[in-house]
Amino acid sequence: MPAIERACDKITERMMNGGRLIYMGAGTSGRLGVMDAVECPPTFGVSSELISGIIAGGYDRMVSAAEGAEDQGATGIQDLAAKKLRPQDTVFGISAAGNAAYVADALEYARQQGCLTVGLTCNQGSRLERESNISIVTDTGPEAITGSTRMKAGSAHKMVLNMISTCVMVKLGNVYQNLMINLRPTNIKLKNRMISIVCEIKGCDETMAVQLLEENNWSIRRAVEE
Length: 226
Prior knowledge:
Distance between the termini: 40 Å
Largest sheet: 5 strands, parallel
Strand order of the largest sheet: 2-1-3-4-5
Strand content: 5-15%
Order of helices and strands: HEHEHEHEHEHHHH
Mean pLDDT: 91
Shape: elongated
Number of helices: 9
CATH superfamily of the largest domain: Glucose-6-phosphate isomerase like protein, domain 1
CATH class of the largest domain: Alpha Beta
Structural class: alpha/beta
């Protein structure tokens, strides 16, 4: 999809100049944005400030619904303003129907601050599309249960967000070939994965990989440069 490719290029360009990626959504859309954001630090070794998510109603809404929060446009602006936007930032709005005031009003505000705005929706001609410099529309058609956008729409949007963040992280140099070289040794599984990656890159055995990692404070990048 050309819009996804264009969004990746523009977001990367802004991040190279100190920009951040901020997801915004309400309900399921907000949860998807927060989930994609929180997966980036452990996967790519980046700061949680570089990619973050804002959900209508606050983080408590990750585990309990507050459907009316999507209609509170002024609150969306307030929540986004708290991020102290910079012109090089990207604000990425997510709304299946494309008309959630919480998201659309925030995107309008972000454009006024000079930010890049990207909208992800399932409906052509929505307000979210109008407020976006780049609009990504996934026409998933009617849901199996009418009105339940967490199904086809939510699944499609999760895939798009994965593509966006992965593409941007690759372009920023946070992977080597298809290997996660910025992993952090926060548990046994990740330590073992780091050892395997060093083995693959260096062509060495596990004993040597562990030695290289320990000598370099468990940094894959430094370990494989030796």
